[in-house]
Design a protein that fits this description.
Distance between the termini: 44 Å
Strand order of the largest sheet: 5-6-8-7
Order of helices and strands: HEEHHEEHEHEHEE
Strand content: 5-15%
Radius of gyration: 37 Å
Largest sheet: 4 strands, antiparallel
Structural class: alpha+beta
Helix content: 55-70%
Number of strands: 8
C-alpha cells in the first residue's frame, strides 16, 4: 500500500470516529439532536474527502491508460518499420545476387570471342556490353550499400521495439496496481461509511421518536428536506416515489418528473421509462468498482442527491423520437440534458438527465 493511502485510511478512521464520541457536560450526555448533527457533519466531510481521493486516483488511472495506449501505438509502428526495413534489405540483396550470377555466366571472354569472329564491329559491341554490365554492377553495389543501411535501420528499429515492449509491460503492471489500490481504497471507505451511516440512521430514528412523542404526530414519508444529508445518504423521508416506475427522487425533482411523465403519456400514450434514479453511496461505489475510469466518483454523482435519472424506452438513443421529445419538452419541467452528456461532450450519455429546478 502506498504511504498516501495508509495515511488516508488512518485519517478516515479518525474523521469518522472522533466526532461520534458522546459529548458530555458533567454527567449529562449530549441530546440526540446534537449527536445527529455531528454525525451529519462527519459524514459530509468524509464523503468530500473520499471523493477527492478517488477523483485523483481515477485521473491518475486515466492518464496512465492514455500513456499506455500511446506506447502501444508506437510499439506497433516500430514493429512495422522493422519488418519493412528487413524486407527491403532482403529484396535488394536478392537483386544483387541475380546480377552477380548473370555476370559469372556471361564473362568478358564471351565478348572477346564475339569480337574475333565478327571483326571490329563485334569487338565494339562486346566492349559496350561489358561496359553496360560494369555500370549495372556499380548500381547494384550502391543498392548493396543501401541494403546494409536498411539492415542497420531494421536492427535499430528492433531494439526500439524491445525497449517499447518493456516500457509497455511496466506501464501495464503499474496500471494494474493503481486499479487494485483504487478498489481497495473504495472498499475501506465503503465499510467505514456503512458503519457511520448505521449510527446516523439510529440517531435520526431516536430524534424522530422523540419528536413524535412530543407532538403525537410523526413526519410522513416524502415530506422531509434533503438538506444536510451527504451525497448517497438521503433519508427515506426526503425521497418521493415516481409515477408508473420504480425508484425515488428528491421531493421537488419527483414532483417535476411526475408532471413530465404525465405530459409524455398525453403525447405518446405511455409514460417515461426509468432505469436508475436515486443512487445510494453503496450503489455508486459498486458502479465505480466495475468501471473506475468511466463512473462518477462515489460521493459526487447527481444520482446521490436524488436529482438525476437514467431513462430507457428509446430516450437512451440519440435522435430517437423519445429523445427528441425530451429535448423539446424536458426544460418546461426543470429537467436538462447536461452538456458533457451530449454527442460532442466528454462522456456522451443520451439516457442521463438532471433536474435543475
Amino acid at each position: 500500500m502506498r504511504p498516501a493511502l495508509r495515511r488516508a485510511t488512518v485519517t478516515l478512521a479518525l474523521t469518522l470516529v472522533l466526532p461520534l464520541l458522546p459529548a458530555t457536560t458533567g454527567a449529562q450526555a449530549a441530546d440526540p439532536v446534537e449527536v445527529a448533527a455531528r454525525e451529519v457533519a462527519a459524514m459530509q466531510a468524509e464523503v468530500d474527502r473520499s471523493a477527492r481521493e478517488l477523483t485523483e486516483g481515477t485521473r491518475r488511472l486515466e492518464r496512465g491508460q492514455r500513456e499506455l495506449a500511446t506506447v502501444q501505438r508506437r510499439l506497433a509502428s516500430a514493429r512495422r518499420e522493422a519488418g519493412e526495413a528487413s524486407q527491403r534489405s532482403d529484396q535488394t540483396r536478392a537483386q544483387l545476387n541475380a546480377v552477380v550470377a548473370a555476370a559469372y555466366r556471361r564473362p568478358l571472354a564471351g565478348g572477346l570471342r564475339l569480337a574475333l569472329s565478327a571483326g571490329a564491329k563485334g569487338f565494339g559491341d562486346a566492349v559496350a556490353a561489358q561496359a553496360d554490365l560494369e555500370q549495372v554492377r556499380g548500381r547494384q553495389q550502391d543498392l548493396l550499400a543501401a541494403a546494409s543501411t536498411e539492415r542497420l535501420r531494421a536492427a535499430a528499429a528492433t531494439r526500439s521495439v524491445e525497449q517499447l515492449a518493456d516500457d509497455a509491460a511496466r506501464r501495464t503492471t503499474d496500471l494494474d496496481q493503481q486499479t487494485q489500490e483504487l478498489r481497495a481504497s473504495a472498499d475501506r471507505t465503503a465499510a467505514l461509511l456503512s458503519e457511520a451511516a448505521s449510527r446516523l440512521a439510529g440517531a435520526r430514528t431516536a430524534q424522530a421518536t422523540a419528536a413524535k412523542a412530543a407532538t403525537q404526530s410523526g413526519p410522513a414519508l416524502c415530506t422531509g428536506s434533503s438538506g444536510g444529508y451527504a451525497n448517497g445518504f438521503l433519508d427515506a423521508a426526503a425521497l418521493c416515489p415516481l409515477d408508473g416506475v420504480s425508484g425515488r427522487l428528491r421531493s421537488d425533482a419527483a414532483a417535476a418528473f411526475n408532471r413530465m411523465t404525465a405530459a409524455y403519456r398525453a403525447d405518446t400514450g405511455s409514460g417515461l421509462c426509468v432505469t436508475d434514479s436515486y443512487r445510494s453511496y453503496a450503489g455508486q461505489l459498486s458502479v465505480f468498482r466495475r468501471k473506475p475510469a468511466l463512473a462518477a466518483v462515489p460521493g459526487t454523482s447527481r444520482h446521490g442527491l436524488g436529482i438525476a435519472v437514467d431513462f430507457g424506452c428509446g430516450i437512451e438513443r440519440f435522435g430517437s423520437s423519445a429523445h427528441r421529445w425530451m429535448k423539446a419538452n424536458a426544460g418546461r419541467f426543470g429537467w436538462i440534458h447536461p452538456s458533457w452528456a451530449e454527442p460532442g461532450g466528454s462522456l456522451p450519455e443520451p439516457w442521463h438527465w438532471e433536474y435543475v429546478g
